């Protein structure tokens, strides 16, 4: 197996087939040149908990408009997360084919984030490829990056993509990809947004260099200590919880509202369809740490382990073999 790194700043360059190509259109005019001091960028690789982070960020930032518990306020029933997919509340800036008429959303109008005090924008684009106006420290917008251990990330992606391949929107003629084939692509770094390790390292290094600008978090940490991480994200975004809020249980309310069990069982996420294409329930599969052990073979585990050690060596970023 080749483990060559094929990552470039051109995020289209790793696409496998034309049909598979998820074109990345980070629109400078749309967001880049207008990145604002109050923007919050949610950055992830696919299948690393994007929808979870979107829900959390939305709930944290909008908590004065939308309380997260029915016991604290009757306005709870108007909380947008109860009826709208987090994918719509925090839209992607880089997938034009996911939106009506194959057009990028116009973020300059801030029409997508309800009354949010800041624009919430999601992206899968690697750090080096982000528009300059987002990256420069002079623009005080912030980036929260969430990654997931490579074993679970790969397994979740493979399972999802094989479902997605059967969907007419992706026009793949139902062609499935064997796990062996998909694994080779993953290890070769052939992915829509570049190799896994380049993606995580790009944001990791920036978070060390610039901790006020980039917050780096792991899916596994969120799972293990949801309240601590919810507070950490809130503080980073400048929306830390007051002691009064903490005493009232607001942190717990937000992490319960955004928990896998709660979101998965909401009618919109159980029975809704995302923009007429994918059923929302496909974004809530198991939500567990360590499910990879049900899919990866011993040789795959060994290969991935060796590869990650090699790629992350010296960076200070460590992934254990997360077991349930
Ligand atoms: P996307 O790239 O399609 O946006 P993304 O949201 O990044 O997907 O990741 C989906 C994964 O997060 C799924 O993992 P799984 O396949 O291992 O089950 C999904 O179940 C999981 N997930 C979704 N919501 C939550 C949540 N609230 N808490 C924990 N995990 C979640």
TrEMBL record:
Sulfotransferase domain span: 38-316
Enzyme class: transferase
One annotated GO molecular function: sulfotransferase activity
Enzyme Commission code(s) on record: 2.8.2.-
Signal peptide: none
Compositionally biased region (Polar residues): 1-14
Keyword annotations from UniProtKB, A to Z: Transferase
Region (Disordered): 1-20
Family listed: Belongs to the sulfotransferase 1 family.
Protein name, UniProt field: Sulfotransferase
Classification lineage: Eukaryota, Viridiplantae, Streptophyta, Embryophyta, Tracheophyta
